[in-house]
Input
Amino acid sequence: MTPWVLRLLVANVAVFLLTTSQLLDWRYVALIPGAILIQPWGIFTYMFVHGGFWHLAFNMIGLYFFGPRLETQLGGKFFLRLYLLSGLGGAAFSFLFARHGAVVGASGAVFGVLLGFAYFWPRERIYIWGVLPVEARWLVGALAAMSLYSGISGTGSGVAHFAHLGGFAAGYAYLRWRKRKYHQQWKPMATPKSQLAKAARRSSDGGSLRRWESIRIEELHELNREEVGRLLAKAKESGVPSLTLEERAMLDRFATPD
Output
């Protein structure tokens, strides 16, 4: 269990207990597209409200099974952003395409998590009901097709099909943005000669090490996170001179500028 998955599970269960015990009126925290100007907070709070035990159970099972691995992959901050943005995407699609009735549930957010899982592990087999193996990419595709068909045809009344689609769309957009940002900022590239020269001119090994230790490793992409950690360990154990100029220049790129 990872930190944000646990917190989200607790938050959803807590709100469910509050609404079922009538300590909190569910209609006050639901998303009502036709009354968005009266209850604007519903675009956020609706994703913590559920219409019944099984509604809550299915969403939390999805979060429990797919969330921890994805949070480990993205890091807590970016996982939470994916979850909330997917939920907001579900709210946006509900507002645009289904303006009547109230919308509740974490389905949009959880569908974004499921898409994130399939994004990183598309060929991972998921066993439906513990029996039928389906690759994650095909499961997401099938769920998207079913939600689109049901939303347009109106079948399965009482289910927020467009919220599911909104969760998929927002989750995918966020992951694509993250990937594009990763390629722009962290893609492997030849170290410019000017950076090599700058690394060579640094006279204080202790000062360089202190700068590198200030790098926020948890905010780096997982590929760079591992490499930066390896180089820092090498510098601490064997000394800064043990690093090549390319390795020093790499650490300099991630460190806070002088």
Notes: Confidence is low (pLDDT under 50) at residues 183-191. Strands lie at 125-128, 132-135.
